[in-house]
Description:
The chain is an all-alpha fold. 71% of the residues lie in helices and 0% in strands.
Amino acid sequence: xxxxxxxxxxxxxxxxxxxxxxxxxxxxxxxxxxxxxxxxxxxxxxxxxxxxxxxxxxxxxxxxxxxxxxxxxxxxxxxxxxxxxxxxxxxxxxxxxxxxxxxxxxxxxxxxxxxxxxxxxxxxxxxxxxxxxxxxxxxxxxxxxxxxxxxxxxxxxxxxxxxxxxxxxxxxxxxxxxxxxxxxxxxxxxxxxxxxxxxxxxxxxxxxxxxxxxxxxxxxxxxxxxxxxxxxxxxxxxxxxxxxxxxxxxxxxxxxxxxxxxxxxxxxxxxxxxxxxxxxxxxxxxxxxxxxxxxxxxxxxxxxxxx
Length: 307
């Protein structure tokens, strides 16, 4: 394999991993606070539709990104009110949120199907961007890629090195004890859910404004579900989530190259490779972790303060 082709493959893997890691990191924060949000797919696709529509109408990709994040936050806010303040079932509400998001994205994007927009520019550092193999990989990516890396570092630092991170983890591990210590459990959880929604919206905006860039119904193609699996695969740790996103991004890119090379396997089977890799990774992880769960102890459990 020539250096140029190797560089192209590596850059493609990082780009394919970026929406997964951004969405997964947001969900990771929500789950560390004890909230299981299965609506990631819905928030992603609404972020993609709203962000693209805003960018087309305003001519500003930056505004499109902001609107995409905002759309994810709004849907997350609806979910948060239902499951945190009204104690609705988190699994059922998350699934309903995904269905709502898919339908809402179709409504928002109905007038923009097939439209194209110039992709958000990539970083270009003279000399460094021209280095073989690592040039474009390290010094020539778009802002979303660097945002994903920075997000992983910031979340790891927040969870492990700050008082706020300790508070959030305490809420996720034992909400009753956290409440007894005076921690505002519902407020912490609600903020964590909003953050997760913003990340999902950002991941969706990346798909429609940088990765493709155009709008098409169903363009998230199950990435929200992969992000959910990725949190479990990463054992709720940010850097493992990033590594896992690269693994699943690699599976996505490799199946595209395999189809282009016409290796003789059905295209449908090759398209399923990333999802099969997700299932296999979860099975392997479950076999390794049979001694006990490493999930936050209060994950998925509603909190109703004593009156």
